Amino acid sequence: MATAMSSEAITALRDLAAHIESQLDQDVSDVTLIQGELCLRCRPSSVIKVLTFLRDDSQCQFKALMDLCGVDHPQREQRFDVVYNLLSIRQNTRVRLKVATDENTPVPSATGLFSSAGWMEREAWDLFGIYFSEHPDLRRLLTDYGFEGHPLRKDFPLTGYVEVRYDDAQKRVVYEPVKLTQDFRNFDFLSPWEGARAALPGDEKADQTAEDQG
């Protein structure tokens, strides 16, 4: 259950934000407090410098990379955000760093700073197609060998491109184009066979509330 932050905690975060901004003014493009969390933005070329400072600076000491993930914004020119969530046990606080990139611009790998980044970057590459330069083993992690595309991109089709099955005649797994037995249903709730037409238990309460407010 979320609780409101004390004024002392908010003041400490603001002081930390001012410190980071003063030390990394050429590398960090945005330093904000969003719902009690410190959030930073930087360019891909600066990410290693910023992560190193956050890890090693005496007032930061964000020694643990808790999570690294991708976010897809297909309407943007730089459609991807790489999000790093760091924890400072000594300061008892967290920071979130975001790096914007596109399909062709690599982001330097953080594996040299945080060993936990290895599999996380592989997952972001597998599911979003975000490339991490100088990663020691950037292979797919969750999808199969030869998988086409990156399934967490917003423009990836719901059906995928191929389906996998075991062929008893060939005694092996085979890949085939997806074949749908019927088209996807359009849940516009206009056709008579979609959903229950009779009133469900509890609906009368909503009607009564609307009459009372009217």
Would you kindly provide a written description of the structure presented here, covering whatever features stand out?
This protein has 214 residues and is an alpha/beta fold. It has one domain: NADH:ubiquinone oxidoreductase Nqo5 subunit (Beta Polymerase, domain 2). The chain is 23% helix and 26% strand. The chain is built from four helices and nine strands, in the order αββαββββαβββα. The strands form three sheets. A five-stranded mixed β-sheet has the order 1-2-5-4-3. A two-stranded parallel ribbon has the order 6-7. Strands 8-9 form a two-stranded antiparallel sheet. Strand 4 (80-88) and strand 5 form a beta hairpin. It is extended and about 65 Å long. The model has no long low-confidence stretch (mean pLDDT 87).
SS field, number of helical segments: 4
Shape: extended
Reading off the top of the CATH hierarchy, the class is best stated as Alpha Beta
- Percentage of residues in helical conformation: 10-25%
Rounded to the nearest angstrom, the radius of gyration is: 24 Å
- How far apart, in Å, are the first and last alpha carbons? 36 Å
Structural category is: alpha/beta
Largest sheet: 5 strands, mixed
- Specify the CATH homologous superfamily: NADH:ubiquinone oxidoreductase Nqo5 subunit
Please mark out the parts with pLDDT under 50 across 5 or more consecutive residues, or reply none: none
Query: What letter string, H or E per element, gives the SSE order?
Result: HEEHEEEEHEEEH
CATH topology (level 3) name:
Beta Polymerase, domain 2
Summed up, the domain count is: 1
Provide the CATH architecture: 2-Layer Sandwich
Oligomer: single chain
